[in-house]
Design a protein that fits this description.
Layout: H1 2-17, E1 24-32, E2 36-44, E3 47-53, E4 59-66, E5 71-76, E6 81-84, E7 98-109, E8 112-121, E9 126-137, H2 138-147, H3 155-158, E10 165-174, E11 180-191, E12 206-207
Parallel strand pairs: 6-12
Antiparallel strand pairs: 1-2, 1-11, 2-3, 3-4, 4-5, 5-6, 7-8, 8-9, 9-10, 10-11
Length: 210
């Protein structure tokens, strides 16, 4: 029994260090009634960098995430400042207000065959539809769990079970009356070697203590 458990742990932990795990960049456009933002995810093993740009392609914020250490840093390129986000332990909460449906609906999003997952919360008057593609995005499930401990960025996606290897190629948030509130769509995925230096905080940036 001990040997079986040890083998399972080795297999599970090896998935994130596997040569098959995704390394590269993912570009996403997020739009709402008020504005449009552009994001680029850089992924290398357990390190993730998320750059946010405005409509003039100006870098306005970077986020550095270390999944091994459960660390999240936010950088301000303009002010040359950075701070570490507090990663609170997830508080126990009931999921009775969330309805999760993994449908068999499929569609092609930017050339990728995706399936629809829906998460509904009537109390909040929100339904989010995720069109997901399964590949080697093993980092994303762990990223969702970690960021949900900082500001609940991925709270709805975090409710979905068995998401390993999936990535949402298109996310649409609506009211229960079907009025669209926002959407995020992947516009480019590039598998490539990522330089480790981009995951380091520049030496001339100053720490802001919370």
């Amino acid at each position: 029994m001990i040997n079986f458990l040890l083998s399972f742990v080795i297999l599970f932990s090896g998935m994130f260090n596997s040569p098959d795990a995704f390394e590269g960049s993912i570009e996403i456009v997020c739009s709402s009634f008020y504005d449009t933002s552009y994001f680029t995810y850089y992924v290398k093993k357990q390190n993730i960098r998320i750059d946010k740009f405005d409509d003039k392609n100006t870098l306005i914020q970077s986020m550095l995430i270390d999944l091994d250490k459960d660390e999240v840093f936010v950088l301000s390129p303009e002010k040359k400042l950075y701070k570490q986000l507090t990663t609170n332990d997830e508080l126990p909460e009931t999921d009775e207000n969330f309805i999760i449906l993994k449908t068999e609906n499929s569609r092609t999003v930017n050339g990728y065959e995706c399936y629809q997952w829906r998460v509904k919360n009537a109390e909040r008057n929100i339904e989010v539809a995720y069109w997901v593609w399964q590949n080697n995005f093993y980092f994303f499930e762990e990223l969702v769990h970690l960021l949900n401990r900082t500001d609940k960025t991925y709270e709805f996606f975090n409710k979905i079970p068995e998401t390993q290897g999936f990535f949402p190629m298109l996310t649409v948030e609506r009211t229960l009356l079907r009025r669209e509130k926002s959407r995020a769509s992947v516009v480019n995925i590039s598998s490539k070697t990522v330089d480790e230096s981009i995951f380091k905080i520049p030496s001339d940036f100053e720490l802001v203590k919370l």
